[in-house]
């Protein structure tokens, strides 16, 4: 174990405490702690403005937002999705009594491969749930074409895609709904939190009703089978503080990303993942793939780095389709998912977050390079 300060794959970015205290005092004085209070409303408006979207509904976490988005979309049957994601993506389907159908991923972007989606469509297919993996946009135009052709809805798991844009603006504008996570490890966070981006006022009203137990505006009539998905005022206030410095945070992430790419390019057996050229990245993660040209296996490198006090993450490993909950599904067979299976056994996400110093980045690179000469 290294005697240096450990380097973690991510660390929450906290504003100065003295900046947070006035917000807390205002919340205490107003005695409005939740239920869509002033800070909640301010954060929704600020996020719509920053992200360039029409409507946004805040949630207590991203999983609640996924569950409610699927409920709001009013779908049943089968949903085509990726095995290469965090387990919440597929859990949200099962909780809504929907059947996940796994399709392989694109080897460049690691997103759902549009070329394989159409072959998986059956009469029972009602929707597609792609994931903007690591913040790299899916091929949204190809997915939309397929969805329109077959009359399917598209719900994007955009947990990693805060602030990501293409030539038409926010990537969150695509699909019927897009779902964000504001977990502490994300580019933008509210400690815990999430959101659904919708395109019209009526859909937002339905989502807001569903996240408040299904109550109608009179507060006494329950018209829908809803849940308690509300974000507290303290979480919303923290989000407003985070949003003030998001530009600087993204710039710092970009610098780290570029340094990794420049230095790792010279190491055989290490591949850096590239997004689509026409998109604007948010540098949410820095995944690399370790192949047979590297002298250590992925797991051996993972342990080597950990022994040196560098805590990376095999994200996403194992595949969702390999978990006991889903492995019996016909679409979970590894033979159907060769790219996702290979990538899951090769991937390591390296540390990237604002405040990660140039010296620390070089320490990570040196450790990979050193092991690569073994």
From TrEMBL:
User: Does the record bear Ion transport in its keywords?
Assistant: no
- Write down the CDD domains for this protein, in alphabetical order: AHBA_syn
What's one Pfam family the UniProt record gives for this protein? DegT_DnrJ_EryC1
The residues that cross the membrane are none
InterPro entries in the cross-refs: DegT/StrS_aminotransferase, PyrdxlP-dep_Trfase, PyrdxlP-dep_Trfase_major
| MF term (GO), any | transaminase activity
Report whether DNA repair shows up as a keyword of the record.
no
Q: Which UniProt keywords apply?
A: Aminotransferase, Pyridoxal phosphate, Transferase
Which PANTHER family does its entry note?
Answer: PROTEIN RV3402C, TRANSAMINASE
- Protein family membership: Belongs to the DegT/DnrJ/EryC1 family.
Q: What is this protein called?
A: Aminotransferase
Q: Which organism is it from?
A: Herbaspirillum hiltneri N3
């Amino acid at each position: 174990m290294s005697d240096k300060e450990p380097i973690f794959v991510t660390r929450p970015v906290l504003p100065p405490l003295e900046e947070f205290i006035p917000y807390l005092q205002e919340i205490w004085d107003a005695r409005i702690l939740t239920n869509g209070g002033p800070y909640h409303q301010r954060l929704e408006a600020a996020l719509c403005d920053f992200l360039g979207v029409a409507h946004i509904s805040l949630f207590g976490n991203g999983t609640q937002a996924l569950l409610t988005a699927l409920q709001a979309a009013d779908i049943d049957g089968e949903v085509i999705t990726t095995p290469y994601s965090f387990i919440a993506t597929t859990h949200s389907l099962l909780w809504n009594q929907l059947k996940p159908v796994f399709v392989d991923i694109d080897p460049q972007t690691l997103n759902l491969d549009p070329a394989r989606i159409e072959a998986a469509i059956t009469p029972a297919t009602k929707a597609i749930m792609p994931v903007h993996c690591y913040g790299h946009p899916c091929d949204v135009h190809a997915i939309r074409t397929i969805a329109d052709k077959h009359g399917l809805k598209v719900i994007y798991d955009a947990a990693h895609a805060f602030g990501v844009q293409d030539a038409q603006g926010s990537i969150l504008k695509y699909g019927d709904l897009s779902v964000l996570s504001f977990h502490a490890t994300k580019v933008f966070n509210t400690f815990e939190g999430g959101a659904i981006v919708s395109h019209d006022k009526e859909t937002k009203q339905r989502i807001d009703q569903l996240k408040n137990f299904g109550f109608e505006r009179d507060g006494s009539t329950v018209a829908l089978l809803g849940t308690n998905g509300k974000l507290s005022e303290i979480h919303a206030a923290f989000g407003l503080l985070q949003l003030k410095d998001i530009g600087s945070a993204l710039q710092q992430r970009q610098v780290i990303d570029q340094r990794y790419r420049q230095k790792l390019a010279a190491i055989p057996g290490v591949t850096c993942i590239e997004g689509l050229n026409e998109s604007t990245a948010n540098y949410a993660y820095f995944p690399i793939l370790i192949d047979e040209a590297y002298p250590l296996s992925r797991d051996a490198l993972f342990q080597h780095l950990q022994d040196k006090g560098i805590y990376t993450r095999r994200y996403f490993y194992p595949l969702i389709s390999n978990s006991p909950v889903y492995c019996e599904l016909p679409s979970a067979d590894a033979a159907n998912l060769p790219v996702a299976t290979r990538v899951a056994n090769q991937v390591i996400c390296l540390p990237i977050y604002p405040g990660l110093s140039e010296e620390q980045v070089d320490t990570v690179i040196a450790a990979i390079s050193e092991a690569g000469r073994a």
